[in-house]
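Entry for the shared binder. Reason: the reviewer on the internal report wants the predicted structure included alongside the sequence.
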Amino acid sequence: MSVCEVIEEKLAEEFSPLHMKVENESYRHSVPPGSESHFKVTIVSDEFENLRVVARHQKIYQLLNEELRSGVHALALHLYTASEWEEKGGSEPMSPPCQGGSK
């Protein structure tokens, strides 16, 4: 199972998302081809109700602790409640270009 698939499975099980997208953005960074080190995660879940942004991020980091210790270098997290997602018009933010390292 790929790292991306493991992340998707864990997040789906823990957060029962209304919407979820996990994107491997490693190709946009200074890593070898086929790497799984940089991910953008967008989740819409009722589990985020009444949680501040930092607390939402902490829940993700805790859940993916093993992956973060074993090769995942970066997670771009976009975590919303259903009403926040609706207010945004259901659109995922674009990722900025990589600013570090060289290929």
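Summary line for the report: The longest helix spans residues 3-15.
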